[in-house]
Amino acid sequence: MDKYIESELVEYKNICGIDEVGRGSLFGPVVAAAIIMNLDDVIDEVNDSKKITRKKRILLAREIEEKSLAVGIGIVDNKTIDKINIKQATRLAMKLALEDMIQKFNINPGIVLIDAENIDSHIKQKSIVHGDSLSYNIAAASIYAKVFRDNMIIKLAEEFPYYSLETNMGYGTKKHYEGLLKYGKTIFHRESFLKKDIR
């Protein structure tokens, strides 16, 4: 536990970590997770979700859910992203995830650790740059949010098979752009993220 920032925050009970996924995607929502992990039962392999294979993330997400004290999800759809911009949408998803966690588990965090963001909340918070590498709770949230959102996109890929969504998760790969140029946008694409000739 010493390698994580939580070891410096022992005066706080119920440390919550929040992270988001899907910020740079052309398609679908931005999703955030808020998690309070049991710091007496640390999962050694928890790390920044981008450094872990999909197969491993799926296994870890299950273990994270089992060993967490509380977990919540916040989802902000593509229409809202277009309306309020991605930065505000990210903050909103994080706030919704925190509220979801508190409501579902009736638990109040002593402090909220957020990956390089601030949210509108009365609860004490700490913004940590590279938080998904430095904080155990943020890393757990990053894995959980990633697996949750990937599952959403993979399901939508069955409905919209022309964009290779099951492999790019909505990000702007060559195959995704080829699909956009040939078939146009879907109701789940973020208009504000698309090139002018596709909008």
UniProtKB/TrEMBL annotation:
Q: Which GO terms describe its cellular component?
A: cytoplasm; ribonuclease H2 complex
Primary residence: cytoplasm
Q: Which gene encodes it?
A: rnhB
The protein here is known as Ribonuclease HII
Binding-site positions, a divalent metal cation: 19-20, 115
- Keyword set includes RNA-binding: no
Q: What is its EC number?
A: 3.1.26.4
Q: Which InterPro entries match?
A: RNase_HII, RNase_HII/HIII, RNase_HII/HIII_dom, RNaseH-like_sf, RNaseH_sf
Cellular localization per UniProt: Cytoplasm
Note describing how the cofactor binds: Manganese or magnesium. Binds 1 divalent metal ion per monomer in the absence of substrate. May bind a second metal ion after substrate binding.
Reported function:
Endonuclease that specifically degrades the RNA of RNA-DNA hybrids.
Q: Organism source for this protein?
A: Citroniella saccharovorans
Which UniProt key words apply to this protein?
Answer: Cytoplasm, Endonuclease, Hydrolase, Manganese, Metal-binding, Nuclease
Q: Member of which family?
A: Belongs to the RNase HII family.
GO terms for molecular function, please? manganese ion binding; RNA binding; RNA-DNA hybrid ribonuclease activity
Q: Which GO terms describe its biological process?
A: DNA replication, removal of RNA primer; mismatch repair
The catalytic activity, as recorded, is: Endonucleolytic cleavage to 5'-phosphomonoester
Obligatory cofactor(s): Mn(2+); Mg(2+)
Q: Name one Pfam family in it.
A: RNase_HII
Residue ranges of domain RNase H type-2 in the record: 13-199
